[in-house]
Specification:
Helix content is about 55%, strand content about 5%. With about 425 residues, it is of the alpha+beta class. Among the domains are: about 90-200; about 290-425, SHC Adaptor Protein (2-Layer Sandwich). InterPro entries: SH2, SH2_dom_sf, SH2D4B_SH2.
Length: about 425
């Protein structure tokens, strides 16, 4: 099963949901190792192909055109970095010029609007004054005598010239004020834009960058911690298996053992389980599907492949082990373990893979470990690299050695049957 997952680099979501956190981390670590191995293999192959292509190209183009890089006085390839060559403006200067230009354009726009308002006020002011003066002069001179109209006209023109002169002076004065205000406003806008840019760079950008950096570092540390734990667990299990010497290669103790067809095994819940009758193997040819898809197929698999390997039996006897259970769900397993002490366990036939599920009672809840039986050995899927010849070897091994270093799970007390007939009876009928 593990080899198939690593070959396909895919695990079914339902099967993934059956794994606990330690199994997931170990499995992801192994998948990552496989990814790196494939990547290195591809890179080496690509490197060799590229070297071969270069060699072939040199042979074909030995007399053809070639591209030569321009080199500097030091003999290295000549490189020009914009902004660092002589005559290039540095970034700070370009930024200063852009800010100053933006401030100048904004101040000029504001000055134009202000001048339009000022010019309208001046025009209206002198137009009204001229009209009033003209009306006054005409009224006064008209009353005196008609002959003085010419004098009135001259006086009117004189006053108009004086008013125009005053208007021109007023306009020049107003233009000078607007120009001065424009310069002052341009400086104010430049300073405000500069301060806003600096504040934005040193506050929002820095804070956002620091927050992103903090989250990234935290995520990296968490991933590194999980990967480190997975690697340590993998190495610990491997070293422990070598030291103990209790792996599948030790023996195929019971692989050649067969059960008598006429042997009768009675099913009950006593601690010393009586003998069970084992049916003869079916004469039909058994071909195992890629995945279990029904209870009937699982029962057929157990009878065809697991009974000959003495799965579920006590060592050197024909009694069903107290910890062995049939095809029960996770919820049913947890109900059986609900009122048990920490370290109590049971092994049930899995409905997700060709194998089993070890349900374990811990202080704060339950843990479930998948046991792969798709090959000629038994091992925890994604947690324990040890390979055991029989299920009994696996159980006995973890009565002395913990399953994971983080959880410290030891198999202390088996959880027996609470039903009659037992839940494993369909497997042996």
């Amino acid at each position: 099963m593990l080899q198939q997952i690593l070959r396909d680099m895919y695990i079914d979501p339902e099967l993934l949901a059956e794994l606990n956190e330690e199994q997931k981390q170990i499995l992801f670590y192994k998948m990552r190792e496989e990814q790196l191995r494939r990547w290195k293999e591809r890179e080496e192959k690509a490197r060799m192909e590229e070297a071969m292509l270069r060699k072939t190209a040199r042979c074909k183009q030995s007399n053809g055109k070639r591209v030569q890089w321009l080199r500097g006085k030091d003999g290295e390839v000549w490189v020009w970095v914009m902004g660092e060559a002589p005559g290039d403006k540095p970034y700070e200067q370009i930024s200063e010029e852009l800010i100053a230009e933006r401030a100048r354009q904004q101040a000029q726009k504001e000055a134009e609007e202000l001048w339009k308002q000022k010019e309208a006020e001046i025009t209206k002011k002198f137009r009204d004054a001229m009209a009033q003066e003209k009306a006054r002069i005409v009224a006064e001179k008209w009353k005196i005598e008609i002959e003085d109209r010419k004098a009135a006209k001259l006086e009117e023109e004189k006053i108009q010239e004086e008013l125009k002169k005053r208007e021109e002076e007023e306009r020049q004065k107003g233009e000078e004020q607007i120009r001065q205000q424009e310069e002052i406003r341009a400086k104010e806008l430049y300073l405000s834009l500069k301060q806003a840019q600096q504040h934005s760079q040193h506050s929002d950008d820095d804070q956002e960058w620091e927050e992103q950096l903090r989250r990234s570092k935290a995520a990296d540390e968490e991933r590194s911690h999980k990967a480190r734990r997975a690697r340590d667990e993998y190495r610990r299990q491997s070293l422990r298996a070598i030291q103990k010497g209790r792996v599948a290669g030790l023996s195929n103790l019971f692989q050649g053992t067969s059960l008598n067809n006429d042997q009768e095994i009675k099913l009950n819940n006593n601690s010393a389980s009586p003998l069970l009758s084992v049916s003869a193997a079916s004469s039909n040819i058994w071909e195992r599907p890629s995945r279990p898809f029904s209870r009937d197929v699982i029962i057929r698999w157990f009878k065809e492949e697991q009974i000959p390997r003495r799965a579920g039996f006590e060592r050197n006897t024909n009694r069903i082990a107290q910890w062995f259970h049939g095809i029960i769900s996770r919820q049913e397993a947890e109900e059986l373990l609900m009122n048990k002490s920490e370290g109590t366990f049971l092994l049930r036939v899995s409905e997700k893979i060709w194998g089993y599920a070890l349900s374990y009672r811990q202080q704060s809840g339950f843990k479930h470990f998948l046991v792969d039986a798709s090959g000629d050995f038994y091992s925890f899927l994604g947690v324990d690299p040890n390979r055991h010849a029989t299920l009994t070897d696996l159980i006995d091994f973890h009565k002395e050695e913990i399953i994971t270093s983080s959880g410290g799970e030891l198999l202390l007390e088996p959880c027996g049957q609470q039903k009659n007939p037992p839940d494993y009876s369909p497997l042996f009928e």
